[in-house]
# Entry
Amino acid sequence: MKIYPYIKLKSAKGEKLFALLIDPDKVQGASLSRLIRKTKKGGVDLYFVGGSLISNISHESIVQTIKKESNIPVVLFPGNSLQIDPAADALLLLSLISGRNAEMLIGKHVMAAPYIKASKLEVIPTGYMVIESGRPTSVSYISHSHPIPADKDDIAACTALAGEMLGLDLIYLDAGSGAMNPVPTNMIKAVHEAVKIPIVVGGGIRTADQAATACFSGADVVVVGNAIEENESLISVMARAIHNV
Ligand code: 1GP
# Structure
């Protein structure tokens, strides 16, 4: 099954998905293989692969390595158009709808479109919303965009609604990698009430409680990166929390 229909189906059934974010700059070689082995036992549903900035350029792509060692689907979460890898299963085509930087809304996409078409990747048009989380994050710096203030649920809800009306298939609420504070639960609830399309939530989720709370608030997919890089035993704990909601 393709990835987006799978996410939609799970969302319709109220079943939550756990996505492990692999940043190619932080996890590679032996540590990547160890992480993959742990995810096999741990209940990860999807790998998201990407980062705001990638400086580890190796001959074999990280996606090729993952595909050799695991059957879990790989979804690209690209920080820029250099991160299009045909070896993946799908690509989140991110339009940064929380910002007002035309390049991130549509400009980069124009340049990338022919490459994406040639890659034959499944494309998931995604409304990407960066939420203020206590301090500047890589994504707010690199994207030259203001995050949505953490207490402005109404702005978040209307932004997501506009994204849905424009035909986007997914909303991604991101507090940013390593965020001090995850996306507030009230904001997830407001967005969940505003739209019917599935909602991905990530950034700064460090505990099973936070992951479960995001799900209870309306997240369909919870993304965790940093916390698991630091403590791989969290994989099974997070997976249980997310799947038992
Ligand atoms: C960042 O949503 C992801 O874009 C995950 O963030 O690494 O803080 O879990 P963390």
Remarks:
- The longest strand covers residues 122-130.
